[in-house]
UniProtKB/TrEMBL annotation:
Protein name in the entry: MUT7 Exonuclease
Record-annotated 3'-5' exonuclease domain positions: 333-534
Lineage: Eukaryota, Metazoa, Chordata, Craniata, Vertebrata
Xref: InterPro entries: 3'-5'_exonuclease_dom, Exonuclease_MUT-7-like, Mut-7_DEDDy_dom, Mut7-C_RNAse_dom, RNaseH-like_sf, RNaseH_sf
Region (Disordered) residue spans: 541-586
Skewed-composition ranges (Basic residues): 550-560
Membrane-spanning residues: none
GO MF annotations in UniProt: 3'-5' exonuclease activity; nucleic acid binding
Example GO biological process: nucleobase-containing compound metabolic process
A Pfam family per the record: Mut7-C
Keyword Cell membrane among UniProt keywords: no
UniProt xrefs under SUPFAM superfamilies: Ribonuclease H-like
The keyword Hydrolase is assigned to this record: yes
Keywords carried by this UniProt record: Exonuclease, Hydrolase, Nuclease
Length: 690
C-alpha cells in the first residue's frame, strides 16, 4: 500500500492539492484511529522529506493553507501535526490563523480552538482567561495545563485569575452565567475546592512562587488551622508541643490568619488561655477582645505556654502504659548527625543475614505544594535503633563534595538480597526519599530482600488474645501500622507524635521514642508472625515467603505502589492455603463460570471471548453483590484490592480469586486459566455471545 501511495504522489502534478481533494471528498478520515487517509497523509509527509523540491510557496500555498484551515477543526488529533507540517501552517499569516481560531471559539468549539492554538503556538496573542474558562467549565483541566505549559507569563496570569475566583467574596456565578448553554458543561466540577486543587497542581508543575496566589494559600492555611484545633481540642490526639509548633508555622505573621486563630481560641479556651496563646503566636494586642487584652497585660514574659493544659497533658502521660513500649534501653537509641557516627551505623546494618526495620518521618505538609522531604530515617536492629538526621547528613556530604556518599549506602541496603528490610507502606516512604535526594529515585526498582508488612497486614486475622474488646472501645479506633501492632503484639502504637514537626531541631524526647518505636515494632511483628503464623491466619511457610522467595524478585513494585494485597502466588503463601497440593483436574471454559468484580470488566470480557461463562458487575454495583451471585449460581469470584478479604470470607474455600489489577486483561486471564487449570481449545474462541 505504501509503495502504491508513493507511486501515486510521484504521478501527481500537485501532490499537496491532490491530498486536499482526497480529504474534502472523503468521510473516512473523520473517525479515530489509523484510517486510510491517515496512512496516505503520513506517507506524503515522509515523501516530501525525500523530495524537497515539492513544497510550494506564494499565493498558491496560501490558497491551500486557507482550505486546510477549514478542515482542521473536524480532523482527528492524529492528523493535525502531519497536515500542519505538510502545508507549513507555521508560516501562514498569523492574523489569519488567529481569526480562524476566533471563529472556532465563537461557534462554541472551545476544545478545538485551544488544541489548534497549542499546535500553531498562538497563545501569546490570545486572552488566557477567555480561552481557558469554557475549558474549565467542561472539566478539561489537562488541556488548560497544556495550553499554558510553554509560557511562564500565561501560567502566572492563569494562576492569578484562578486565585481571584477563589476569593470568598468573589461571586463565581459571574463566571458561569455566560456559558449556561455550554455542551458538556459540568458545574459540579467548577467550584472553589476543585479550582484550589488545580492551583496547587499548577504551582507544583510549573514551579511558580505560591505568593502569587494569596487567597488559595490563606484558605488552605485556614483549613489546616481548623484541622489542628480539631486534633487538639476535639479528638485530643495531638500533644501541646506539636500543636504549638504547627500553629506557629501555619499562622506566622499573617494578620488574617491571626484573626481566625483568636476566634477559634475563644471557642475552646478561657480569656487567660487565649491571652497566653496570643502571646506565644505574637498576635498584636489591638486584634484581641478587651477581656483577653487585659489578661495579656497581667502575664509575665517568663510564663510558659505548656502550663495552659497541664492537667490534660498529665492525663495523657498516665495513658502511656496502654500503648506499645520499646523493649530496649534509651541509651541504645542513637541520633546520628555526623558522617563518622553514620559509618559505625552502616557497619552494623550492612551485615549479611541482618533483619532491619526501616521507617521514615517528615514534616506534615497539610496539603501544601510539593512532595514531603524525609527529615528522619530510622533503622532498627535487634538491640539498637539508629535515627539518621537526613537533611543534616546530606548537607554535610555536599559541603565535603561527596554528596553521593549517603545515597550510595541507602541503595546498598535496599538492593542487598542478603539483608531483610521490613517496612509498612514502603512505597510512600520511597517516593518521599526520592523527593529528598534525586540520586535515590530508582531505589524502588532495584530493591531486593524487602518485605512490606502492609501486604501481610491484609492477611492477618482478628485481635491478639492479649487485647480485650473493652480496651478497644475506650480509645480512637486504631488503623494502619498501629492496628497491626495491636493485633500481633497486644497494644497499639502511641501516634500522638505522628504529626510532629520533624524538621525542627533538637527533636524532643517524645519524638525520639516515637520514631524508634515505629521502626522497632516491625522487628517484633516479624518475629512473632514467623514463630506462630497459624494463630494469625497465615500460611505455615511464612519465613520462606518473607525472606527467600520475595527477596529474590523485586517484582512487588506495582503492588507496593498501590498498596494492594499480594499477587495470587503471594496470597497462597501468606494466606490460608486455598488449593490442594495437586493441581485441579483440567476443565473446559464451558464448565467454568465466574463473576467479575466491577474493576475487572476488561478481564471478564476477555474470558468471555475464550468461552468462559462470565457475569460482570455494573459500575454502580456493591462488591458484596458478587458473593450473592457466586452463592446462588455456583460461580467463582474474581476480584482485586481491598474487597478480596471481605468476599473471600463469604464464599467457600478456593471460590474467590485475587487478580492483580495493575496487569493487562490478557495477563490476568492467563493467571486465572492457569490457577483453575482451564484448557482452552480453538472451538471455545467466540463460542459465546459477546
Amino acid at each position: 500500500l505504501k509503495e502504491e501511495i508513493r507511486r501515486g504522489f510521484a504521478r501527481l502534478e500537485d501532490p499537496l492539492a491532490g491530498l486536499l481533494a482526497m480529504l474534502e471528498s472523503s468521510s473516512d478520515w473523520k473517525g479515530k484511529g489509523h484510517s486510510l487517509v491517515y496512512c496516505i497523509t503520513t506517507e506524503l509527509q515522509l515523501w516530501i522529506k525525500a523530495h524537497p523540491a515539492v513544497p510550494q510557496s506564494g499565493t498558491k500555498l496560501k490558497k491551500l493553507q486557507a482550505r486546510v484551515l477549514g478542515m482542521l477543526s473536524q480532523c482527528p488529533a492524529n492528523l493535525l501535526d502531519p497536515l500542519i507540517s505538510i502545508y507549513q501552517l507555521h508560516t501562514a499569516d498569523r492574523n489569519s490563523l488567529l481569526e480562524h481560531v476566533s471563529h472556532l471559539y465563537l461557534q462554541g468549539n472551545y476544545k478545538e480552538a485551544a488544541i489548534l492554538s497549542i499546535k500553531l503556538k498562538l497563545q501569546p496573542d490570545q486572552d488566557v482567561e477567555k480561552m481557558c474558562t469554557p475549558l474549565l467549565l467542561q472539566d478539561k483541566a489537562n488541556l488548560v495545563e497544556d495550553y499554558v505549559a510553554e509560557y511562564p507569563d500565561l501560567q502566572r496570569k492563569l494562576l492569578q485569575t484562578l486565585d481571584m475566583w477563589c476569593d470568598p467574596s468573589f461571586n463565581i456565578r459571574d463566571i458561569t452565567r455566560p456559558y449556561q448553554g455550554l455542551s458538556k458543561y459540568k458545574p459540579e466540577k467548577f467550584n472553589r475546592r476543585v479550582l484550589s486543587k488545580l492551583v496547587f497542581r499548577l504551582l507544583e508543575r510549573f514551579n511558580v512562587d505560591s505568593a502569587l496566589c494569596p487567597n488559595v494559600i490563606n484558605q488552605r492555611h485556614l483549613r489546616t488551622l481548623n484541622y489542628l484545633f480539631y486534633k487538639r481540642f476535639v479528638e485530643k490526639t495531638m500533644t501541646e508541643e506539636n500543636w504549638a509548633d504547627h500553629i506557629q508555622s501555619t499562622v506566622g505573621e499573617n494578620r488574617w490568619l491571626q484573626g481566625h486563630l483568636v476566634q477559634s481560641l475563644l471557642r475552646h479556651c478561657d480569656a487567660r488561655g487565649v491571652a497566653r496563646w496570643a502571646q506565644h503566636c505574637r498576635v498584636p494586642p489591638e486584634m484581641l477582645p478587651q477581656a483577653v487584652a487585659e489578661e495579656l497585660q497581667k502575664l509575665h514574659i517568663q510564663d510558659r505556654v505548656e502550663e495552659v493544659t497541664k492537667a490534660s497533658d498529665n492525663y495523657e502521660a498516665s495513658k502511656k502504659k496502654d500503648y506499645y513500649q520499646l523493649p530496649i534501653p534509651r541509651e541504645n537509641i542513637h541520633f546520628l548527625q555526623t558522617w563518622k557516627e553514620t559509618l559505625q551505623c552502616w557497619e552494623k546494618v550492612l551485615q549479611p543475614g541482618q533483619v532491619v526495620g526501616v521507617d521514615m518521618e517528615w514534616k506534615p505538609s497539610f496539603g501544601m505544594v510539593g512532595k514531603p522531604r524525609v527529615a528522619l530515617l530510622q533503622l532498627a536492629l535487634k538491640d539498637e535503633v539508629f535515627l539518621l538526621d537526613l537533611p543534616r547528613l546530606l548537607e554535610q556530604a555536599e559541603a565535603e563534595g561527596e554528596k553521593e556518599k549517603l545515597p550510595h549506602f541507602i541503595q546498598m541496603l535496599y538492593s542487598d538480597a542478603a539483608i531483610t528490610k521490613l517496612g509498612y507502606g514502603m512505597s510512600g516512604d520511597l517516593s518521599s526519599l526520592a523527593a529528598t535526594c534525586y540520586a535515590l529515585k530508582d531505589t524502588e526498582k532495584q530493591m531486593q530482600g524487602v518485605l512490606d508488612l502492609l501486604a501481610v497486614d491484609k492477611q492477618v486475622n482478628g485481635l491478639s488474645p492479649e487485647h480485650s474488646h473493652e480496651e478497644r472501645e475506650v480509645r480512637q479506633p486504631e488503623k494502619g501500622l498501629s492496628l497491626l501492632v495491636q493485633h500481633v503484639l497486644g497494644k497499639p502504637l502511641d501516634k500522638t507524635e505522628q504529626l510532629s514537626n520533624w524538621e525542627k531541631r533538637p527533636l524532643r524526647e517524645e519524638q525520639i521514642l516515637y520514631a524508634a518505636s515505629d521502626a522497632y515494632c516491625l522487628l517484633e511483628i516479624y518475629e512473632r508472625l514467623c514463630k506462630d503464623p497459624k494463630s494469625f491466619g497465615l500460611g505455615s511457610d511464612l519465613t520462606d515467603s518473607l525472606v527467600g522467595k520475595q527477596s529474590k524478585k523485586p517484582r512487588a513494585k506495582k503492588q507496593l505502589n498501590k498498596q494492594e494485597a499480594p499477587s495470587p502466588s503471594g496470597q497462597e503463601r501468606l494466606g490460608p492455603r486455598t488449593e490442594p497440593s495437586c493441581p485441579p483436574a483440567p476443565i473446559s471454559p464451558r464448565e467454568f463460570s465466574v463473576v467479575c468484580d466491577n474493576m475487572l470488566q476488561g478481564l471478564g470480557r476477555y474470558l468471555r471471548c475464550l468461552g468462559v461463562d462470565v457475569r460482570l458487575l455494573d459500575n454502580e454495583d456493591d462488591h458484596r453483590k458478587a458473593a450473592e451471585i457466586a452463592r446462588q449460581e455456583g460461580r467463582v469470584i474474581l476480584t482485586s484490592g481491598r474487597p478480596y478479604q471481605t468476599l473471600r470470607s463469604q464464599v467457600g474455600e478456593g471460590r474467590c480469586f485475587y487478580v492483580n489489577c495493575s496487569e493487562k486483561a490478557k495477563e490476568q486471564a492467563l493467571q486465572v486459566l492457569k490457577h483453575f487449570n482451564v484448557q482452552v481449545s480453538l472451538s471455545d474462541i467466540f463460542s459465546r455471545c459477546q
